[in-house]
Predict the 3D structure of the following.
Amino acid sequence: MSAVLVLEALCLLGFAAWYGYQLATSAPLSLGGAVFTLVFAVALAVWLLVVGHFFFRGYRWTRSAALVWQLFVVILAVPTLQAGLILPGLVLLLPAAAVLLLLFTKPVLEHTSRLTDSGKTF
């Protein structure tokens, strides 16, 4: 599941690169808004990479971070599908649905509820 999170982060970085290229080659309606969107997309991608990394290591807090991110992706996917953009909507919805389902499986819960040698959870 951490691989899906990292893949989503890489796709978001790809979007940010494309958006930055478009920003550099054309005149945006609002430069401040466009730069904010670019910085926000990069920050989200970096955060998602961090979540994927720490999920792989078994940290408990990553489940809630992944859950919130996947819910945001579903919120974006549903209107995309309703607008008739089937392929982009499914590309957003299917990985998010898979992660949402996997978050509540027993192996994932066990992986993220491990105890350290000192008896404290991560």
In short: The mean pLDDT is 92. Residues 31-56 form the longest helix (26 residues). Helices lie at 2-25, 31-56, 61-82, 86-102, 106-111. The two ends are 18 Å apart (CA to CA).
